Amino acid sequence: MLVALDFSGDMISYAYYDGQRMRLEYLQDTVGFRTKDLFQDRKIIKSLLYVVKDIIKHDIGETLKVTVIAIPSYCSYHDRERIKKAASECDINVMRLLVGTTAAVVFMNHMYNLTQKHFTVCSVYSDYAELVIAEIGNGVIEILSSSIFPYKEDSNIRNLDNVRKNLLSQVKQAYDDAGLTAENTGKNVFISCENCTGLVRDQFRETLKSYTDSELISFSNGAVMGALLCLMKLQGMEGIYQDYLLLDVAYKGISVAFGDEGEFKPVIPRFCKIPSRQMVDLMVSTETELRIYEGNFRNRMYDEIIGTHKVSEFLEGRIVNVVIDIDVTGKIEYSVLDDSEKEIIPSRRIPSHE
Q1: For 39-55, b where at least 16 C-beta lie within 10 A, e where not — what string?
Q2: Distance between CA atoms of 354 and 350, rounded to whole angstroms?
Q3: How far apart are the first and last CA of the chain?
Q4: What are the distances in angstroms from CA 117 to CA 104, 142, 170, 271?
Q5: Nearest 5°: CA angle at 224, between 218 and 225?
Q6: 36-40, 135-139, 237-241, 321-325: the lowest-pLDDT one
Q7: Which residues pair with 103 in a beta bridge?
Q8: How confident is the model at residue 110 (pLDDT cuts 50, 70, 90)?
Q9: Other C-beta atoms within 10 Å of 256: how many?
Q10: Strands, DSSP E only, in 197-331?
Q11: 157, 248, 337, 349: least buried by Cβ within 10 Å?
């Protein structure tokens, strides 16, 4: 029996295929589990996975061994590595980590057998919201852009206009990132507000309606169901769902620099389609430590260092080629070549960080 997990929402849920249909279960006692620091502590993730594994064994008699997990898009590279390592220590093979709203895109396509070129999925949680723009064509689902932003309900009627203005700016930015206008956004917008009040739901519905003039379709459970569909595909099951090729993106950009004061250059742009292999020319500064940054800004002050590597001081002042390679699972490798394309640093994976 195949089981997928959802860690992107306000409570944990799991979905499974029992041989006849896909089924869903919520773990009600996990409401509020997704704290700010949850994904920064492997021991906490491991404890949580053990609990979930025991519950699944008790409820449906299945030992969780292989899964796909839906996660928030704000998870960093190291967060993802911690989740996979914690799962491995629980004897769980995570075949793929999918951003929750990306997984919901897969589910919406499965449910509605969409034929339109573009469509939008909006997920609203207790503390943030995310908007994903996708494109469909010739059996391919392509993620074009994603906008994630903090969101808190404000029932003060005097602040509703400010709330709507903020939402509208985020909606416009997401479509701009996708290279779309309000006229070619597609006829359907799917919106999920599973744990929201009517006021929150209405704020999002009105804002999306005012910009896209599309039909709004409410849904729930999209993340975990999409994760299950992905797992079924990875396991080679056929005849259950509409087959597709999912072209995901790097939700955070990758930049590089030598030391604190050296030249700082983006290598992988945000929303770059993966897999991707790109390189930049970079001058080795007086500080010869190569630093690899992950984030959404072109400013090292706001980005996280996910990898470092020291090169020879004899390279100071020379131009080298820094290569970043991201595979379909989000695994990142890097290498450095000199001006004759000789390897200075052979290709190696960025390690997990504890």
Answers
A1: beebebbbebbeebbeb
A2: 13
A3: 33
A4: 17, 10, 22, 19
A5: 70
A6: 237-241
A7: none
A8: confident
A9: 25
A10: 215-218, 245-247, 249-250, 253-258, 264-268, 272-273, 276-283, 289-295, 304-310, 319-326
A11: 157
Q: Which structure tokens are listed for 86? A: 């914690």
Q: How far out from the chain centre does Cα 170 lie?
A: 17
Taking the C-alpha atoms of 24, 25, 31 and 35 in order, what is their torsion angle to the nearest 10 degrees? -60
What sign for the dihedral angle of Cα 24, 117, 169, 98?
Answer: positive
Residue position matching structure tokens 């070619």? 184
Distance CA(48)–CA(80), nearest Å, equals: 15
Overall pTM surpassing 0.90 (yes/no): no
Residue whose structure tokens are 């450095």: 336
Q: Are 217 and 116 in contact (CB under 8 A)?
A: no
User: How far, CA to CA in Å, does 165 sit from each of 39, 127, 146, 209?
Assistant: 31, 18, 18, 13
